[in-house]
Design goal:
The chain is an alpha+beta fold. The protein contains 8 helices and 11 strands. The protein has helices at 19-24, 39-44, 53-66, 72-86, 133-146, 185-198, 240-249, 262-268; strands spanning 2-13, 26-36, 92-100, 110-118, 120-128, 150-155, 159-161, 172-181, 213-219, 224-225, 230-231. The strands form 3 sheets. Strands 5, 6, 7, 8 and 9 form a 5-stranded antiparallel β-sheet that branches. It has a 4-stranded antiparallel β-sheet with strand order 1-2-3-4.
Length: 269
């Protein structure tokens, strides 16, 4: 990925733990590395094909001046999120916020916080076998698409499938979607649980009937195994009701553990 750099943009703003810092203000230095594809602009000579670093600099200045936070960690996190949400063509961002002459009672040039944030590609499986199944699934798609830091890019068709695990229950309506998100896997899992809860999901019987079921299948090419989260989904390669709709929107997505494409895993079933 190519880079556009902004080095040590000077901004006078009011951030700090001490009350006088929030009143009197002080100078901050902000540096940003904007990760994007510069080739379209490089070949066309069109500014709209790239990131306008002047507008980004103005955005940083305005954001720093109109908000007041105690910690520069919060400044960096909030600013990075807003830049990613509002800057076209920006895929990833390295951001450093420097605070010269920080009031620590010792001679130093500055303290700073440096973070890297960016968009992630996630594939989710959706299912419902209670009530108005189609409406539950469509509501979940809408909720995800309107959640801050999430953008639904593609949704499969819905397919009717036989229940899995506990078979004496109504058939399911299943599908998959492609999501772009700024959330971490853990943050996304919390959002999914909130959307399920809002749909009346009750976790009484394992693999039992449910109004809404949302599972993370892939998160970039990340491999995660904790007590609460397993990515890629541990059972996905065995489930036709996941692979069929996933194949519709991502047939050549590779499983980061076994290296097989979604198409290959579906054919093996």
């Amino acid at each position: 990925m190519d880079e556009i750099r902004i080095d040590n943009l000077e901004v006078f703003a009011k951030h700090g733990v001490f009350p006088e810092e929030n009143v009197l203000g002080q100078k901050f230095l902000v540096s940003a590395v904007l990760h994007t594809d510069t080739r379209p602009a490089g070949r066309s000579d069109e500014l709209t094909a790239s990131i306008h670093y002047g507008e980004v600099s103005a955005f940083i200045t305005e954001f720093m001046q109109k908000n007041t936070y105690q910690l520069i960690e919060r400044v960096a996190e909030s600013l990075a999120e807003e830049l990613l949400l509002h800057t076209e063509h920006l895929e990833m961002l390295e951001l450093e916020v420097k605070k010269p002459w920080a009031p620590v009672g010792l001679p130093l040039e500055c303290v700073s916080v440096k973070i890297t944030r960016g968009w992630h590609t996630v594939y989710l499986a959706l299912g419902s076998n209670m009530g108005d199944k189609k409406q539950f699934l469509e509501n979940a798609v809408k909720a995800l698409d309107t959640w801050k830091g999430c953008r639904v890019e593609e949704v499969s068709s819905w397919i009717a499938t036989a229940p899995y695990g506990v078979t004496e229950q109504d058939e399911f309506l299943n599908g998959c979607l492609k999501l772009r998100t700024l959330l971490t896997p853990e943050e996304l899992l919390q959002v999914l649980h909130k959307i399920e809860l809002d749909a009346g999901r009750e976790r009484k019987i394992h693999w039992g009937p449910r109004t809404l079921d949302l599972d993370i299948i892939f998160y970039d090419d990340l491999i995660v195994e904790t007590e609460t989260l397993c990515i890629p989904h541990v059972e996905m390669h065995k489930r036709e009701f996941v692979l069929r709709p996933l194949h519709e929107i991502a047939p050549y997505k590779h499983h980061p553990c076994n290296g097989k494409t979604v198409r290959e895993m579906l054919e093996e079933l």
